[in-house]
Amino acid sequence: MSASDNCLFCGIAAGTIPSEKVYEDETTVAFKDIHPKAKVHVLVIPRHHYRDVAELAQEDPAELAHIVEIAQHIADERFHGAYRLEFNTGEDAGQSVFHVHAHVLTGEVLAE
Predict the structure, then answer these.
(1) In sequence order, what are the beta bridge partners of 84?
(2) Of 56, 58, 89, 91, which sees the most CB atoms within 10 A?
(3) CA 21, 15, 94, 40: dihedral to nearest 10 degrees?
C-alpha cells in the first residue's frame, strides 16, 4: 500500500484520520460522506493512492471492479439495491480530493 503525503483519503484508509466506516477489507475502505447529498452517501476508496478513476482503471482494473461490487453491497444493505455511482475526475468536474473515490448515492431520485 502506498500513500500520498497530505492526502486526506490516504489518512482515512490508514486509520489516522477518523471516519464513519461502513465497510473495509484488505484493499478498500467505504465511509459515510461528511456532507451527504442523498439519504445514503458513502465514499468508496482504494487503500492504494490513485489520483482519479482513469489512473485506477489503467493501473488496477480489478480494484475498480471491486469498488463497483462494494457499491452494490452497500446499496443492497442500506437501500433496496438501487444506487447511483459517481466518479468526479478533475477539478472542473468537481473532484476536490485527488485520491480516487466513488460516491454511492441512494435513497431518492437525484437531480441530473
Answers:
(1) 105
(2) 56
(3) 0
Side-chain-side CA neighbours of 46 within 13 Å: the count stands at 27
Using one digit for the tens of pLDDT, what is the confidence trace for 31-63?
A: 999 999 999 999 999 999 999 999 999 999 999
101 an active-site residue? yes
Identity of the amino acid at 75: A
The x, y and z cell numbers of residue 100, run together, are: 480516487
The contacts of residue 6 (CB under 8 Å, 6+ apart) are none
Q: Which of the residues 48, 49, 101, 103 is marked catalytic?
A: 101
Nearest to 27 by CA among 58, 74, 69: 69
Per-position DSSP letters for 26-73, written without gaps between them: SSEEEEE-SS-SSSEEEEEEESS--SSHHHHHHH-HHHHHHHHHHHHH
